Amino acid sequence: MGEVSTAGSGAGSGVGARVRRKEDDRLLRGRGRFVGDIALVGMKELAFVRSPVAHATITGIEFPEEHRGAVFTWADLAAGGVKPIRAVSGLPGFKVSEQPALADGKVRFVGEPVAVCVAATRAEAEDIAASVFVDYAELPVNSDMLEAVTPGAPKVHDHWPDNVFLETNVGGNIAEIAATAPVKVSRTIRTARQCMVPLEGKGVVAHWDRHVEQLVLTTSTQMPHIVRAGLSECLDLDQGLIRVVAPDVGGGFGWKGLLQPEEIVAAWIAMRLDRPVRWTEDRREHLVAAANAREHHYEITAYADARGRLLGIEADAWVDAGAYSVYPFSACLEAAQVGSILPGPYDFAHYRCRTFSVCTNKPPIVPYRGVARTGVCFAMEQMIDAVADAVGREPWQVRLENLVPPEKMPFDNVTKKHFDSGDYPESVRRAVAAIELEGWRARQRAGEADGRLIGVGFATYCEQSAHGTAVYHGWGIPMVPGHEQAQARITPDGGLELRVGVQSHGQSMETTFAQVAHEVLGIALEKIKLVHGDTGLTPYSTGTWGSRSMVMAGGAVATACRTLAERLRKIGAHLMQAGPDGVVLEGGSVKAGAAAVTIREIAHTWYRAPQLLPADVDRGGLEVTAGYKPGSDHGTFSYATHAVAVAVDPEIGQVEILDYVVVEDAGTMVNPMVVDGQIYGGVAQGVGTALYERMPYDTEGQPLASTFADYLIPGFTEVPHVRIIHMLTPSPYTEFGVKGIGEGGAIAPPAAICNAINDALKPLGVIVTNAPMTPEVILSAIAQKQVAERGAA
C-alpha cells in the first residue's frame, strides 16, 4: 500500500508539518508553572498519615492536644458534609464500593490515608503526622487476586458476598470448535502490577476565592472538568462554585485522570481554615499508596487449523482492581475491556471470554497508558506465536494468515469493534523487511561466540481511540463523552485564541492545535494561543484520555475555525466590494483576484471600525464555539507491528535489545515529529513493562518496592534506538483523517520482547509467559526445564 495522506503537504506550518513544539521555549528554560511552583499568601502544607497495614479495623486515633486544629480525620470531614467517592457502573452485577477520602473505621490497603496534618511547611506537617497514633486491629489479607475469589477468602467489603467487583461474559459457546480444531494451544499468562512514574507526581493547591465566592483547585490533572464534577458530588457544592485549574502537568499516563482523595481533603481544609493549602505527592507515596495498574492473569486457549488459521479463542481473565473503584472510570475499566478487545486485529469467528474484576487489599488500580490493551496484546500475541510453533510456520506468516485484510475495511470483528481503515498485513511485511529477519535467522544458526542466544519477536495490535458516546454509555459509567467543543476567537490585531477543555500533559497541544487552526485560517503559528486546563475559561470536556484529544478537540478546533473563515470571507468580500463567491481565504488574507485584505484588517474593522461592516454581518462576530463528533461513534483504530531482535544470556538471564522497529499507522499525522515522540516515549514505557517494572506484594499486602532502589525503570542505557516507519491510511470518519496515537507505543513492546525471548530460548525448550521477563524469571524457567528433563530421564 502506498503512503497516502488527504491533508497537508508536510511542508509549511499546517497539518502534516514537522513543526518544533511551541511549548519547548518555556519548558526547556525552566519557565513552566507546575503545582510545586505555586506559592499563595498564607499557604499551609499538608501531610497524610497513611496506613502501615493492608487490612485492619481502626480502633482509635490519638494525637497530642497541642495539635488539635492541625489534625483531621474522616469524622471531621463527614461532620462537614463530605461524602465518600462513588465510582459506579451500570453494567449488570457491578458492586459499588464507597471510598472515604480518609479511612472510615477500616483500612483496606497499605498507604490508605487515615488522617491529614496541616502546618506552615511540609516538614512540620510530617512531624505532626509522626505524632499521630492509630490503633489497628489487623484482619486477614487478600494479597493475590486468584486466592481472593476462592470460597472462604476474607472479604474486603464486609457487605459483599464475594470479592468481585464485576464478572463479564463475552461471546458464545465454542465447544464444537474446541472439540474439532486440528490445533489447540493453551497458556497461563500473567502481567505484573506496575506504577506510572510520571516525572511530576500528583499535587494540588486549594483556596477559596472571596472575590468570586468560588473554590479554586489548582491540580495536576488530565481531566479538570471531571475532577470538578467529582468534587461537586463529594463536597455537596454546585459545580458553579468550583473552578479547577490544571497548570503545566509533568506527565500523566492515566494516573492524573481521576479524582484523588487528597484533592477532596485539600479542598475541604481550604474551606474549613479559609487558608490556601497544598499537598504534593512524594515518590514513596506514589509507588506505595496510589498509582498501581496492569495486574492481569489469563488462562487462554487458541484453536486453529493446520495452517495456523485461527478458528476460535477461549479465555478466562482476572484483573486485580484493588480495594476501591476509582472515579470516574470504575473498577471494571480494565477487565471489562479485556473481554471486548482481546481478539485484537485478527479475523476469526468463534470467541468466548469471561473476565473478573477482583477486589483485593491493594491500592485501587488506575488507568495506565494503553489501558487493558498492553495486557491483551501480551496474551494474544503469545498465542499467535504458540500457534505458529504448533504448525511449524514463521510467526509473521501466521499473523498474515489471520489479520484483517485491507479489502475488508471497514470491518466489524467478532466483538463488533468497527475497524475504520488500514492495511494490517502490510505493517507485518514492512516490519519483517525492516528488521532483516533472514539475517537474524542466519545469525541464530551460526550461534554466538559468547554463548548468548538470538531471538526475533513480533507483535501486532490495533488501538481503539477517541471512543464515542455509545461505547461509554454501554459501560454505564458517569463520564460519557459527547460533542467535544472548542472556542476560536480572532483578537483585535488579527491573532487567534483557541480554548479547549482537554488538558496537555506532554501531547504538544499548544503546537498541534495551532497547526490545525493554521491549516484552516492561515494565521501564523506564533500568533495563535491555546488556553486549556481551566474549567473557568474553557468549554466542557471529559478531558485527555484514550488518545482522543487530536481526534475530538482537534476536530472541534477545525470546525470552529471553518466557521470563522466563512465570517472572515464575508467581511473581507464586503471591504473589497467583491462578490462573496469570488473570494478565498489564503495565507492569512481574504483575496479576490489581485485585491486582498488581511485578517488583521478585518479584525480591526470588527472591533474598531464597525461602521464599515456589511449590514447583514453575522452578529456572532469573530468568536465561535463549535462542537465536533466524528462520523463514526466507534472511535478510530490506529495500529502497528513492532519487531525486535534480542540476545539472551542463558547463564545470567540478561536480555539485550539489539534492534527495534515500529511500523505504525496513525492516519494523517498533524505533526510527524510529535507522533514520533509519542511512540518513542511509549516504547520506553513498554520496555519497562517487559523487562523491569514490577510492584510486588507479600502475603500480608505489604508493597516491596517503595523506592527506585527496588522499583526499576528503564533509563537511556536500557531503551533501544527505535526505527519508526509510517504508514498513512486516513480514517474515513475524522477531520483530516487523523487517528489517536498517544498510547500505542506502550502496547506492543512487552509482547514483542516476550516473543523474541521465547524465540531465543527455543533451542532449550523453554517458554516464559509472565512479565516482566527479569533475569530471575528467565533463569527460573530454564532451571524448571532442566529439572523436568532430569526427572524424565
Structural class, judged by helices and strands? alpha+beta
Coarse shape: globular
What summary fits the major beta sheet?
7 strands, mixed
Q: What portion of residues is helical?
A: 25-40%
Strand order of the largest sheet: 3-7-1-15-12-13-14
Mean pLDDT: 95
What is the number of strand segments? Answer: 33
Measured distance between first and last alpha carbons: 53 Å
Strand content: 15-25%
Number of helices: 20
Question: Rg to the nearest angstrom?
Answer: 28 Å
- Uncertain residue ranges: 1-10
Which terms would index this structure?
globular, single chain, 6-stranded mixed beta sheet, 793 residues, disordered N terminus, 7-stranded mixed beta sheet, alpha+beta, 33 strands
What does this protein structure show overall?
The protein is of the alpha+beta class. Helices cover 29% and strands 24% of the residues. It has 20 helices and 33 strands. The strands form nine sheets. A seven-stranded mixed β-sheet has the order 3-7-1-15-12-13-14. Strand 20 and strand 21 form a beta hairpin. The radius of gyration is 28 Å and the shape is globular. Mean pLDDT is 95; it is low at 1-10.
